[in-house]
Structure formats: C-alpha cells, structure tokens
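Section handout, structural biology tutorial.
Before the tutorial, make sure you can parse a SMILES string by hand: atoms, branches in parentheses, ring closures as digits. In the record below the ligand is NAP, and the chain has 303 residues. In the tutorial you will relate the predicted structure tokens back to the input. Do not try to memorize them.
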Amino acid sequence: MPKKHSLQPRLIGTGLSGLVGSKVVELLQDEFQFENIDLTHPTHPTDITKLDQVQRVLAASDAEVVLHFAAFTDVTKSWEQRGDKNGVAYQVNVIGTENIVKAAAESGKHVVHISTAYVFDGKKAEPYTEEDPLHPIEWYGETKAIAEQVVQDSQASWTILRIDQPFRSDPFNRPDVVHRIIHGLLAGTLPPQFTNHYLGPTFVDDFAEVIRWVVKTKQTGIFHASAGEQWTDYDLATAVQKTLQLPGKVEKGDLDAYLAKSHRPYARNTALSTEKLRGLLPQPQLPIRDALRLVTFVDDANQ
Ligand SMILES: NC(=O)c1ccc[n+]([C@@H]2O[C@H](COP(=O)([O-])OP(=O)(O)OC[C@H]3O[C@@H](n4cnc5c(N)ncnc54)[C@H](OP(=O)(O)O)[C@@H]3O)[C@@H](O)[C@H]2O)c1
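Predicted structure of the complex:
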C-alpha cells in the first residue's frame, strides 16, 4: 500500500485485498490511510478467526472505524461445509465477525459490516427491502445471516451494508459478474444466460462512495447498497455486449432447467431496493447502464 501522510484519518479493515475491498482502498486512499488486517500482512499477519490476534491489532490502531469486508465467499464450497461450525465458511464468516465486533467494542471503534443479498431466500418477485425477513437457503447465506445478528447483538456501534453481485470498472484477479460475461463472449464460452433469475448488481466504484459516507457519518442501521436495480442475467449480458461492443451471441437460459441438475440451492432473486439509502446519500448511485460504460477489460486473445 502507498505511503500516506500521517494527518490523514486512519481506517482499519479486513478483506482489503479482496474483490470489493481493494477497489474501495484504491478509490479512497487519497483521503484515508488504510491498515489491512490480513493473513498475509508482512509485519503482523492476522487471522480474524483468532480473537487474540484481532484484539491485538485493533487495540494498537487509532482508527475510529473498522471496515469488515473479509469473508469466505465461495458459495459452492460453503455448501459442501453446510452445518459444519468448524468449517472455514462458519469460522471466517461467523467467528471472524464475532471477534471483530468484540475487539471493536473493546477499542471503541465503529464497525461497518459488509453483507449480502444471500441472507434472503430469493422467493420474492420484487427487490428486497431492509424490512424483509432473513431466510437464507444455503450455508454461505446462513453464515452471513448469523454474522449480521452477531453484529446487531454486539456492544460496538455498527452499520450493515448489504450488496449483491459486485463488479468493478477494472479487471481483478477473480473475475466479477460483468468480467465473466466479457471473458465468455470474447472466448465464445458464455453459457446460456437465465431469463428467469434476477440480480441486483453493485458497481464497486460507486459503493466506495457509500463507504466514504458511512465512515463520515457513522450512520447506524442496515442499508441495501447495490445500484438499486433488478436485472435478469440475460438482460445484463446483452447490455454488457452492446455497451462494450463485444462479439458473439448471448443465448437464453432457463434457471429451472439448471436447478433440476444443480447440487445446491440457488436464490431466484437477489435484487435489493435501495430506497432507504437513496434518501440519505449525498449523491445518487450510478445507473448500471452508465456504470457499464466505465468498465475496462483485457482481450487476452487479441494481445
Ligand atoms: N463477491 C460477491 O459476489 C459478494 C456478493 C455480496 C456480498 N459480498 C460480501 O462482500 C464482502 C467482500 O467480498 P469479496 O468478494 O471482496 O471477497 P473476496 O474477494 O473473496 O476476499 C475475501 C477477503 O477476506 C480475507 N480473508 C478470508 N479469510 C480471512 C481470515 N481468516 N483472516 C483475515 N482475512 C481473511 C481475504 O484475505 P486473503 O486474500 O489474504 O485470504 C480476502 O481479502 C464479503 O463480506 C462478502 O460476503 C460479496
């Protein structure tokens, strides 16, 4: 991470090397000095599943806010661990969160916890609101729902931000939903895209602005922080192709046919309503069609 001016406010966070966290750091690093709580940290590697390590690193920091991005995010691998509280998904997502909020409360820090639309069952036709009951249908969602409760029951002050299908303007080492579509179209390997599965993409570059706002206001409560739109996979892939003028053809796919062969449950709708946040944010979230115009990619085949 670049060297920073000592007068910049400090932010300490977990998962700052991940798909979402690393972009937030990149976009806010002129304003804040980031400390990463990370397994691979060169001087103080920290495993968030170990309370003593988390307490040590939070007690030593004068940051007022902890950004808690770290999670075990592989939904399929999580499903293979379902019910296993010793499994890495439960350990990182639940125990890791318990440790963060406990240590944050002890050191008087506000916790910003990043959560997911997978806490819902996907049966609702419209975008989910913050008032909708949680009902996860697979283990990753269940661990994240338990983690949300852990945060709410804690002695720390907290904000929970739920997002869905994050995508960045630039390529990352783990392709996001939009870069997966781009790669699939360029390589001619894009699978049929569901016309009956609904998602609520989150433009990470814009989400960084939500983080900036939460850090400044320390607004407590649960907020949905996607772009507030509801897309089918097919419509999103078609918009990506059109906007970025990509070759190939987007074929239509059927979620029900896929589910008949799938080994794990799959939420039909993960779109989020952002009405609550919209009334508070200083600027509106970018519509997805505008965000897609800012996406860059590398065409490996034509290098
Ligand atoms: N990606 C999505 O589709 C999606 C959708 C909705 C919500 N979210 C939520 O958004 C947040 C960020 O997701 P992401 O996709 O950016 O995650 P990601 O790319 O999978 O990165 C996960 C991060 O967690 C860290 N981590 C994992 N285990 C750890 C441990 N034991 N101790 C310390 N750090 C640990 C990893 O550090 P190392 O790299 O050092 O292992 C990495 O920085 C998560 O809370 C996730 O639930 C993600």
